[in-house]
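[User] At your convenience, examine this fold.
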Amino acid sequence: MTHKSIICFLIIFCSTWSAFSQDVSNYVTINPTDSPSEIIRKAARVAPSERQLRWQKLELTAFFHFGINTFTNREWGEGNEDPKLFNPTKLDAEQWVRTVKEAGFKQVILTAKHHDGFCLWPTKTTTHSVAQSPWKNGTGDVVKEVADACHKYGIGFGVYLSPWDRNADCYGTDAYNPFFESQLTELLTQYGQVDEVWFDGACGEGPNGKKQVYDFMSWYSLIRKLQPQAVIAIMGPDVRWVGTESGMGRATEWSVIPTSNLDLSAIASHSQNNVIFKPNGNMMEEVLGSREQLMSATGLVWYPAETDVSIRPGWFYHPAEDTLVKTGRELMEIYLTSVGMNSVLLLNIPPNKEGLVSNEDVNSLKEFATLRNSIFSNRFPPNGMVVFCDNGVNTKSITDHQYDTYFTTKQGDSTTIITFSFKAPQLCNLMMIQENIAIGQRIESFEIECSKPNEGWVKIAEGTTVGYKRILQFPEVYSSGFKIKIISSRLEPTISEVGFYHW
């Protein structure tokens, strides 16, 4: 095997989307006559839609589980709770949003309605809502307060509307889907821009003992009509669930997968199933988007993973869990195994009965932000250094700001080697690498080496997929030289950023 060597300090190349916009799409059809090499090339050119790319770059999204369960001290309500129980005495949505923004989160999702059917806005579709509560004498609207706070502080706003409704009499009948669409319409027309609509696949029995057949396709059409920029997540076409609520992503995470993985019935059969909430649950055992899977696919689609976890053991607030809040360091570990494994982290932070994010959660988030900033603000190599590359580099550019500096190497059948040489040895135990996913995900395997006195170049870590971001941890090394060796790639690797860090 031949090798090409690139000697560089920082990857910075400039130059437009028009140069390659005709070559990429967020889906592709596989023809029966396509050869294996043609299928791989097609997979390498599948790229995110504009809404998917915006979502991926968020990295951190906050989930606010808040509702009638907050006041009954339960996780799942039964639908027969008295709305008079809902009475947060100090509700401050700006405190929620300000807290997560200061911690580096760029979007929030609110549980506008959970499985119990209690609506956090004064809906016209049911009396089971805040309008029947003593909070603000029935004139309050939690959705509006959170939406207004998000718009004020300049972060994204999303809603979770549970398809399962244990209160609605029409659940399990033909009347429920129009009922649900009426609720969706209210949420998507009364609160300004909505950036994400989040569904799970929970489908239990309603008050009449029947289950519902959800008309997801009609719901999607409604969302695209009313909020076309909104990402539809989990039980939706834009974003999929990684398969566990542990905060642990896959070691090999492809965003390009066969279209069969969009099968809603298969997703729904696993959703809200405690068996797969284990770190190594059923849905996590399989690598999605492998070469083997691609060969039997009829189509490929960009369908990235979201990794969700709660800052507490439960998803709603429970006083007994005040001492069980994940520490900043634990959240940092979760960041490395979610965002650092080509995913977006959806972290649940449940407000308490007063209507505030508790001090325990606030302090943990501050610790997480401080730790994350201290690590990633000290990068080797630093910004502004010159790049030296050989003739094996084909530079391109795009208009998207994050990817206006990147390079494409001529991979072919050879290993691409990127060498970093520092003026003085540095102490490192983390390496971060990002691909230019605006034109696809391509890297299949890579290795990290460092230079050691009297030993030469020594392998210290290895990885498979990269995608939007991959962070590898390895034992501490003190070295003035590092190499990234891209062993296998589906097409020319396009690298937008590299950094070495210590924590």
